[in-house]
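Review session, final week

We close the course with one last complete record, chosen because it touches almost every idea we covered. It is TetR/AcrR family transcriptional regulator, a protein from Brevibacillus invocatus with 202 residues. Go through it on your own first, then we will talk.
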Amino acid sequence: MDQTKMRILSAAAKLFDIYGYKGTSVRKIAEEAQVNVALISYHFQGKQGVLETLMASYFETLFRLVEEQEAAYSHVPARQRLEQVVGLYVQFHCEHASITRLIQRELSVESMLAREVMTLYMSRYKHGLAKVIESGMNTGDFQTVSVDRIVLAITSHIVYPFLHPQMVRQVYELEPASEDFARWLHRSIMEYLRVNLQSDTE
């Protein structure tokens, strides 16, 4: 991707995070990126195209990392694979906190874009976690559970701190962007999974 596109996307991500999608104009994005406003229409067909590109890049990067990890750890026990994939999700959300927050905000509003995101990406997002749990259930490493409920709980654990960072900072006095927080969150999720997935043979 050329430098002009990268500057536009970087500027948009920053402004969307501060002002929200609706509160950010194409002119503001152009000023922040220091480009002619016409270039946004040329490269992205407008503000929604910028948002869609940010979302697509976010999800496709995550899915590629999950696939690479899956290939690298396919030979290890399900419990270890689950720990690795949860760690990847937590770290990815931590490193891309502003885009995570932006996407979750947009998904909270009933719109054509939200429906498209859920159709195109959220089932794959869920699958990245569900596949490992289902594999562990098939081998007897995990007890039989509602996979949808477990994945929803994992996702809630991961997303909430990045969707509401100010609350986490002010009410709980924790810094969601820190490595310490990411490690704590990973351990907390794994403890939840240990209790809820423990097989009868353990």
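Two points worth writing down before the exam:
The mean pLDDT is 92.
The domain at 1-45 is CATH 1.10.10.60 (Arc Repressor Mutant, subunit A).
Good luck, everyone.
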